Structures are given as C-alpha cells and as structure tokens.
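Supplementary Methods S3. Input chains for the assembly prediction are listed below.
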Amino acid sequence: MNDRLDKVLTKQQKQLIEPDVKSTEEVMQLVGFIVSDEEYAIPMLNIQEIIKPIEFTRVPSVPDYILGVFNLRGNVIPLIDLRKKFNLDASKQSEEARYIVMKGKNNIAGFVIDRLTEAIRIRKDRIDPAPETLHKDKGMIYGIGMRDDSILTILKVEALLKRDF
Amino acid sequence: MEDIQEILEDFLVEAFELIDQIDQDLVELEANPEDLELLNRIFRVAHTVKGSSSFLNFDVLTRLTHHMEDVLNKARRAELRITAEVMDVVLESIDMMKALLHGIRDHGNDRDVGIEIDDICERLTAVSNGDEILSSGASDEPASAPSAPPSTPEPEEEVDVSDLSDDEVEAEIERLLKQRKEEDRQRKAAKKAQEPDTPKSQAPKAPPPPKKAPPLKAAGDRDLAPAKKGAATVEQTIRVEVKRLDDLMNLIGELVLGKNRLIKIYDDVEERYEGEQFLEELNQVVSAISIVTTDLQIAVMKTRMLPIAKVFNKFPRMVRDLSRELGKAIELEISGEDTELDKSIVEEIGDPLVHIIRNSCDHGIEDPSIRATTSKPEKGLIELKAYNEGNHIVIEITDDGKGLDADLLRIKAMEKGLITEREADSMSDKEAFNLIFKPGFSMAKQVTNVSGRGVGMDVVRTNIEKLNGIIDIDSELGRGTIMKLKIPLTLAIIQSLLVGAQEEYYAIPLASVLETVRVPIENIYTIEGKNVLRLRDEVLSLVRLSDVFGVKQVFEGSDMTYVVVIGLAESKLGVIVDTLIGQEEIVIKSMGDYLQGIEGIAGATIRGDGRVTLIVDVAALMEMAKEITVDIRASLDEQSSSKTQPSDYKVLVVDDSKMDRNIMMKSMEPLGITPIEAANGLDALNIIKSGEHSIDAVLIDIEMPRMDGYTLAGEIRKYSKYKNLPLIAVTSRTSKSDRLRGVEVGMTEYITKPYSPEYLESVVRKNIKLPE
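Predicted structure tokens for the full assembly:
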C-alpha cells in the first residue's frame, strides 16, 4: 500500500516539476473505465459520483439501452447501459460493475460500466480529434488520447447525456 | 433607480389587485346604480391608479384614469345616472386601463404598447357631458370641470410629488392636514346622522373652487383607504414569493417520503421484534412524526391556496358583455367563491371555465323570444358553484337553457365523420353528450364571435385532463345542462393507488380511479378486436397494464382478475392489473430532462422501501390503450395450454455436488422432463430471476456454499409469481426442527436422503401435475 502511495506521490511530484505539464490548462484529468473489452475515459469534472450497482425500475416505451431509473438519495435518475448504447456484447454484469453518475449542464444520468481502471492525466496535445469514420456515432467521441502503451477513447459527456430518441 | 423599480412593482401588484375587484363591482353597480358605497369603491380605484401613475410619470394612463374618474365622480355625486350605455364606455375604459397596466409590466412604460386612448377619452367626456346636459342639475361648476381637468389635475399631482420645493411641501402638508381634520369632523357628523351621508359629503365639496376638489378627494381617499385596511388588519398578511412556497413544498415532499419510509421500516421491525419494549416507544415516535408531517403538509398546502373567487370574479363582467352582445337576458349566480384551491390550479382553471360559460350563454340559454313561449322566466340563469368534496373541489356550471339533444349530437358527429353510424347507434345519451368535447365538433350553425369553431370544449377537456380532473356532463332537453368539473386540490403530493403488473409496480393517481373490481376472466368479451367488460349497465373498454407498458409476462394470472376503472375528463377505461397493493400518498418527482415526456408516464416517486415507482399518466394511458389489440382471453388461454409434452416441463436441480445432481436427474429421467442444473443457491436464484426458463419445480439441497437451501427458498417466495412454485427440499437433514424450518421458509415437500428413485419421481410428478 505504502509502495503504491509513494509511487503516486513521486509521479505527482514529477508532473509538478515537468515544465510542459505545469499549466493545468494543457492537462486533462480523466477517469478511465472498461465497457465490454474497450477502454473509454471521460473528464473527471463531469463525474458527480461513482456508486455500486443498486436496484433500478424499468421505464416503458424507451430504447432498450435505457435500463430505467434509480433512486440516488431521493433523486430519480435515469440509468443507461453503455454496452447496449454502443452496441457491444452484453455479457453478464460482473462484481466490478459500477454506475458512473455524470452530470452535464442541465442533465444528469447514471451509466453502467463493467470496470473502472484509473484516473488519467493526459496532455491536451496528445489528444487527437475523433477520426472521420467514427463521426457517424453521433459525435459521442471527444477525441482519441495517445498514451505510452495504448490509445484511449475519450467520450463527450454532453453527447452521452443528450436524449436521442 | 432600484427604489423606483420597487415602487413600480408595488404599484403593479396593487393595481392588478384593484382591477380584479373593479370588474365585479362595476357589473354589480349596473344592477344597483344607487349603491354609493360601491361607487365610492370604484371611484377610489380609478383615483388610486391615477395618483400612482402620475407619480410614476405614466402620462397615458394618468389621462385615461382621469377621464374615468370624471365620469365616476359625477355618478357619485348623483349628477350622472349609470345606464347601460354609460357602463359600456366605462367598462371599455377599464379594459384599456388593464391593457396599459400589462404594457407597463412588460415594457416598463405605457407608451410602447401603442394603445390609443384619445377616442375613449373623448367618449368618456361625451358621456359625462352628454348626460349632464340631459340631466337637469347641470350647474356651470361641474361643466367646467370636464373641460379643465386635462390640464389641471396633472400639474396638480406633480405639485404633489415631483417639483416640490420645501415650502410647497410644508404648505401642502398643512393643507392636507386641515382637510383631514375637516374630513374627520365631517365623518363624525355623518356618524351621528347616518342617513344623510350623501348630501353631507357633497356639501363641503361644493364650496371650494373646482381646482381644489381633487386634492380633497385625495385626502378623503387616503383617509378611507387606511380605514379599510384597518378592518383587514384582523387577518394580517405577508406577501411571499411563490418560489419560496414552491421550495417549501418540495421540502415537505421529501419529508413525506421520509415518513413513508419510516412507517415501512417500523412495519418490518414490528414483525421481527414482536413484544419488545422499545417497539412501543418507536411506535409512538413514528406516529407522532407522521401526524406532524401530515399537518405540516396540509399547512403548507394551505399557504398555496387561493380562493376560487380570483377566477370567478371575471365572469359577471363576461356574462354581462355576452348577454348584451347576444341580445339575451342572462343572470349569473355565483356561490362558493371562497372555496380554496392550489395556486397552480387556479391559474389553469380559468380558461376552461371561460369556454364553458360562453357555451352556456351562446348555446344553452335561448333567445328571449323563445323563452317567452316556455314556462321559463325571461331571464336566463347560469349558476356557477364551487364546493369541496373529499380531496377534490367540484365546480358546477348549471344553466336553465335548452339542454343538449343527444340525437342531434349523434347526427352532427356522424356528419363531421367523428364517429361511425354503428358507434352512434350503440352510444348512450351520456356518451353522446361527451361528443361535444371532441376537437372540431360544434353545434353552432355558423361561426360567430362567441363560438362555433369547435375549439372551446376541446380546450376544456385538455386543460382538465392536465389537472387530472374529471368532467361529468348531464343534460335534460328543454330543461338545461349541468357540467361538473372535479379537480384534485393539489398537484405536488397526491394520493395514488399502487398496482402491480407482473413484477412491476405502478402508481395511478387516485383522483382518476373511479373504482376497482374483481371479475372472472369469462366476463371479458372481445368485440371487433377490442376487449370489453360488461360492468353493471355499462360496457367498459379493457386493456392490460402489462400490454400498455410492455411488461415481460412472467406468470399467468388466475381465472379472476382485478380491473381498475379509471376516468378522466369524460372518458372511462378498465385497466387489468395483476395485484392491488393499496393506497399511498406519493410525491411526484420529475425524471429529469433526459426522460421527460415518456409516453404514459407522468413522473416517478420514491416509495417507503426506497424503490422508484413510476406514476401513470392517465390521459396518455387512455390514448395508448386505443392502439393495443391483444385478445386478452385468447392470450390467457394460450398461456395455460402452452405445455403439451413432458419435455416442456422444466425442473431446476440445485445441489453443490455434481454427483447428487446426477442422481436426481437420473431419477427423473422416466418423466421425460427437462432438467436445469445450478451448483448453488445464488446461481439458482439468478436463473429463476432471469425468467429465461419457465420453471415448474425446484429440487433444493439444503447445505450449499454461498446461499443455502433455506435462504434460497425464502428468496424465491418473495416473488409473488413464485408463490405457488413447488419447492422440494432434498436433504440428509432429518431432524424435526429442520423440517419445521423448511415449512417456515415455504418448502412444499421434504425428501430425505437417501431416497429411492421412484419416490423422487412420484413426488416431482405429483407437484408439477404432469399429465399421465
């Protein structure tokens, strides 16, 4: 535990010292998560909270990716299954599944994801705009983040929260 | 600058309140032109508005009110008789005044609305002059008044406030004080001799030159107004922003949910710790909180209540105008105007009532010539009544006109293609009356100013539906029509009936529930693809809630079913549900922008157990029901006969040992059923919950990792659809207490290991009722 903490601290220290990352304007803080087998990320500031799955109530006459609504401390919040929304394989919900409650300007919704990965800091110049061919996805992708060992699909929260039915 | 803004706002609030009252007063005045108190009151309104508007430099408004004041002042002094013609002009000028005030509210000044007042001012002057010439008592004194005023009072008011030098202020105050004293003296005198009030008040006014007259009135007014307020101070008031009340209401809503939750928890605890000391204390606290919460809720609801007089007040004027326009004599009788309603509802109810009353005037009440041939009095009567009935307010509009002709309505509706001939034939009179609510339907032979476009009654229906109200219409040909609007008192917290459709729960606003009945399936008939039920002397359309909302069918109903009869505005529908949970007070919560306006769902609420329950939008449900063509009886029959061969029967085998599972399956082989395996309680529960297989029986081992057999049985029994699912315990635990525990959690059978294959086979066969 201590080791990991140290690592994080030194990493943060390094980030502070590194001149080109210093300005917060150029860095984006993201939270990464897995849906089906792919890794996605969303800006941390758009996350209200992350909770363990709780019971929800089905809502009729809506697309099947809207699972229903759930009670978050007295507020009724829609629950959206990202696997179904992205037309990915719908396997069984695992123990690590979570609801990410995202908030936009005037909308709020919970999204079911399979697993959280980590908090990510990424420089803005390492984010490429979404490739043309992906634009048919109704612009849900903010950009593609280049990381040392992988690439990351950064989602546009406003687009996820936009009602499209 | 801000001060001015504040003053302006106060002015507007006050002015609108005054105007609300004035319309009614004026109409009353026409009936009793001699009522001096009434005249004074009206005069004061014009005067107050004039004074404030000149202070705020609204020249147009000042000029208009000034002219009105002129006419009224003469009437007050009995120099002018209030005739219908005079009243027309005065009422018109009041309308102008309203328009100007609206303009001020919207634009901040009275010029941008572009209202021309020259014409009306001239007519006001003409009325005051014209009548004066006719009436004998014309002295030159009042004659000079109307010509002088345009110039005199305006600067006068300005002296009052704007260009005041200190000396002038002093002088003005002195003068006012003197006048006030005089006025007081006068009033004392008036009190002594109550009768000759009129001449006395006139006497002192005559001596001073006309120039002085307005300030005198001002003094009198200022004097009278506080006196009026003095009487009102008995019930002191504070003006509060509506938003604050809304916030308060929301908080109360949360509290009600908390209370529901507390009661639910208490019920759970009560079961578990029966007879314990603390239970009694808990009970007391829970009861106290629930009483206080209810009281609090009522108290806050009351703060939002407004007397329906707010709406009713504009009708005397409207009926008066209409009766003149239509050349009919109509009297409007209002009662129950003190009945209170939630503010938001008061705002919504105005429009429908306007349409209904216009309709009564235009179509209901006959022309005087026709009325003369009947035994009815010459003057038509429209009664507008409001009263409370349980959680509802009922507004009744009755007219003694010609009534509705059901046959004519049927014919008209057929002509317009709104109904088919067949529908018309099978329609009861009452249903025929309801045709008037159909959009595009009109009985008027021609489109007039007043009605005939076939829009009005449709507006009534939509607005009342929006309020979850019910319209009941009854009529007798030649005798008149009664229309009853039944509206819930408040919108935010409502009583609801909770129902279950399969495993899902929905809340139906109790305001829309007419009754619930339990009927045998055989009583449901299918006519032209529609399911109907004969209920007493009515034929009721039926729809299954689970069909409307696409609820997954997981279990079949019995041969009896519950029907919730819902009614909205003028229509009725029977909704088949699987369970009735009961009545509960619920708080309507929005589901956010994302799920706004889902068809058939009005909102959501949080129940005592913390779960979200959706609230049915009754109006939408009725629309959706029309689209659904499921033959309920056929689908029920199909369900029950779906299993034809042994392999259609499924038995779930739950045991952590593969070998034991195999033994059980081997024993059942002769039956030819389909076995499904689960290695522990949790897996078994998931298989059952998923609803993938329709399982006919479960064989359960007791000792299992993760979830044992007892817990599993308990969990399964929590689902109402599995209340009768055979659960067969297969175990080596043989003690009496084990068996008892098995019975407690709901095991159907108890097989002890070891067992003979034949025995297991026969037990399973018996329980799944496999045909031999």
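Chain B touches chain A through 26 residues (CB under 8 Å). The CA atoms of residues 411 and 587 of chain B lie 45 Å apart.
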